[in-house]
Amino acid sequence: MASRDISENSGALEPETEYVFFVYDKGDGTILHTHQVVNLPGAEAPSREQMEQTALSYVSPQAREQAEAGLAVLSVDPQQLKRGQSYRVDHERKTLVAVERER
Predict the structure, then answer these.
(1) If DSSP codes are grouped into helix, strand and coil, which group holds residue 102?
(2) CA Rg, the chain, in Å?
(3) Which own/partner contact pairs does 38-46 have at CB distance under 8 Å and 24+ positions apart?
């Protein structure tokens, strides 16, 4: 039996598209939910609006009540995120802002 290099055909599929959505409090930028969507080849991709609505649906009623200025959704390129980094959203500029983790 001949040896075969596993890396030749691992069977792993590369995503066609990846999205990350942050649901946050528009008042202070606190992120209440992070939602990642990965679409594999052949899968029917939902619309951006559908993905945003799904992300919003995962926010608890308690978090919704505590959001001072209401909720908003920010879509971010997954490549922009750094592992282990905490963030908040600058609602005015619609960007992520790195913050120090509370210890």
Answers:
(1) coil
(2) 18
(3) 39/15, 40/13, 40/15, 40/16, 41/13, 41/14, 41/16, 43/16, 45/16, 45/17
Q: What is the pLDDT of residues 43-82, one digit of tens each?
A: 898 999 999 999 999 999 999 998 878 999 999 999 999 9
Taking the C-alpha atoms of residue 40 and residue 45, their distance in angstroms, rounded to an integer, is 9
- Where are the chain's structural domains? 15-99
Contact 11, 67 (CB under 8 A): no
- Secondary structure class of 49 (helix, strand, coil): helix
